[in-house]
Design a protein that fits this description.
Blueprint: H1 7-17, H2 38-44, H3 63-75, E1 79-83, H4 86-98, E2 104-108, H5 113-122, E3 125-129, E4 133-134, E5 139-140, H6 145-154, E6 160-164, H7 176-185, E7 190-193, E8 217-220, H8 222-225, E9 233-237, H9 244-254, H10 261-275, H11 279-297, E10 302-305, E11 312-317, H12 322-330, E12 338-339, E13 344-347, H13 360-372, E14 406-410, E15 423-425, H14 441-452, E16 457-459, E17 461-462, E18 469-473
Parallel strand pairs: 2-3, 2-6, 6-7, 7-8
Antiparallel strand pairs: 1-9, 4-5, 8-9, 10-11, 11-13, 12-13, 14-18, 15-16, 17-18
Helix pairs in contact: 1-10, 3-10, 4-5, 4-9, 6-7
Bound molecules: pyridoxal-5'-phosphate (PLP).
Residues 86-88, 112, 114, 164, 168, 193, 195-196, 221, 233, 428-429 line the site of pyridoxal-5'-phosphate.
Length: 483
């Protein structure tokens, strides 16, 4: 197929060039009635709806169908979907497509919160797969094939295996092929959350894509590493182990009935751009990245870590936490993806030949941040504390936690109580403690320490300093972690 084609972009452009008169939704009438500043209002000219010629995401027959066919062709899928509710909806739909009430799903423990929500909404049972500890990044990494094999021996009735590939920190590991083989021997599909790997299709030195390795369904946040707008994701299926009609029905139920055409156009464009990504483009990116890392390394206070995915780089300061380094960089106008107790995560630009991206201003910001933190140079180096503390094995989860009654109490009094909802450092959005888990002293200490050092949380914890509170169930239904 001609990957230069962008059917949605072209149709929108053609439509708006006729100066159409709107008596339909959206109510801003091509931006006329909006009070937004001009820059924002410009995009509203393209904020159309399912008008003649513009197709329908939920029953695609023309431009959206063509765009999805081009997407499947670019990624080597049997069938691909454009998603307007992020990889969140992809995870929800993939899981609903394989699991119903009471079914068992094997789930990598360090998964995004949407995965836990999907299991809960399905009323399924998650059996957790503990990831390996990644020493270089000090984070929970990939799952070992042996872990999946053991889990399948213990749960031969499992309906599928759900993996995060790569992790937020760019760890891919090399056991995915063996895991896929093992799952397929059991006749069950592998669902991969490749939210951070839409660019893997560009080939080495990026890790291989889960779809190429044989995963059955793969979701990718095209807005995270490609050029799509926020909320834009792809979902690919290549499998005889997954019912595509069931998946399509769930997508139709879970996605908005008013998808943004601006978003869809940005997905169409992002696909065309990554499909055209050449060896010369890759060399331009790799050259820029080497300069970035080499220049960073000239600052003796800093250390860089390179995970499996070259698009990610971690930077550590010898004496301060990632939160402090992130704050110092923000004061210089440089904004990073996330910080944890040890480091800051950079998502580099997937540059193309002929495109430039500032490097000197970033290095100046690093130098200024190091100067601003000079007074901390006598501090002890931060402990190599994990972003998601140790690889907790959690209780199996099942539906119903959202409906229990709860109360907020002081964290100091929460030991032994049951967490009313998940406790999630955000970003990365990987629950540290799950809804229904009994809170231990260690868990509470970890959460309070992380808040003290600057982590932001979602879910069942709030406050700061001495007034941290946790939301616990008023009854004691829940359970203890076990291995
Ligand atoms: C691993 C992972 N999966 C899924 C998601 C959800 O993706 P989205 O923001 O596209 O809904 C995220 C978001 O951070 C993520 O990190």
């Amino acid at each position: 197929m001609d990957q230069k084609q962008r059917p949605i972009v072209d149709a929108l452009e053609a439509f708006q060039s006729t100066s159409p008169i709107s008596f339909h939704v959206p109510g801003h009438k091509h931006g006329l009635l909006s009070g937004l500043p001009d820059g924002l209002r410009t995009a509203m000219r393209y904020d159309a709806t399912e008008l003649t010629g513009l197709d329908d995401l939920h029953a695609p027959s023309s431009i959206i169908r063509e765009a999805q066919q081009l997407l499947a062709d670019a990624y080597g899928a049997d069938r691909s979907f454009l998603l307007v509710n992020g990889s969140t909806v992809g995870n929800l739909a993939m899981i609903r497509a394989v699991c119903g009430s009471g079914d068992v799903l094997l789930v990598q423990r360090n998964a995004h919160k949407s995965v836990f929500h999907a299991v809960e909404l399905a009323g399924a049972h998650a059996v957790f797969l503990n990831p390996e500890w990644d020493e270089s990044t000090c984070t929970a990494g990939a799952v070992a094939a042996g872990t999946v094999r053991d889990a399948l021996d213990r749960h031969p009735d499992a309906k599928g295996v759900f993996l995060t590939y790569p992790t937020y920190y760019g760890i891919a590991g090399d056991e995915l092929p063996a895991i896929i083989e093992c799952a397929h021997e059991h006749g069950i599909p592998v669902l991969a959350d490749e939210a951070h790997g839409a660019h893997f299709v560009a080939g080495s030195p990026f890790p291989p894509s889960a779809l190429d390795l044989g995963a059955d369904a793969v979701v990718q946040s095209a807005h995270k590493t490609l050029s799509a707008m926020t909320q834009g994701s792809f979902l690919h299926v290549k499998s005889h182990l997954l019912d595509i009609d069931r998946l399509t029905r769930w997508l139709s139920m879970l996605q908005t009935s008013s998808p943004s055409y601006v978003l869809l156009a940005s997905l169409d464009d992002a696909r065309a751009r990554i499909a055209a990504y050449s060896e010369a483009d890759k060399q331009a990116f790799l050259t820029w990245r080497r300069r970035f890392i080499d220049r960073c390394s000239e600052l003796t206070m800093l250390e860089t870590i390179e995970p499996d995915d070259p698009l990610k780089v971690l930077v550590r300061h010898k004496h301060v936490s990632g939160y402090a380094l992130q704050q110092a960089l923000e004061q210089q106008g440089v904004f990073t993806e996330l910080a944890d107790e040890r480091q800051v995560l950079f998502i580099l630009p997937l540059l193309m030949e002929g495109k430039d991206f500032p490097i000197e201003p970033v290095m100046d910001a690093f130098a200024a941040a190091v100067r601003a933190l000079e007074h901390r140079k006598e501090d002890e180096p931060p402990a190599a504390e994990p972003a998601v503390p140790e690889v907790y094995t959690a209780i199996p989860i099942s539906g119903g936690t959202a409906s229990s009654s709860s109360e907020w109490i002081a964290a100091a009094d929460a030991e032994g109580r049951i967490a009313a909802s998940a406790i999630i450092p955000y970003p990365p959005g990987i629950p540290m403690i799950l809804a229904g888990e009994r809170l231990t002293e260690e868990m509470i200490t970890d959460v309070c320490r992380m808040i003290g050092s600057g982590a932001a949380f979602q879910g069942a914890v709030r406050g700061s300093g001495d007034s941290i509170q946790m939301e616990v169930k008023t009854d004691q239904q829940g359970g203890d972690r076990h291995g």
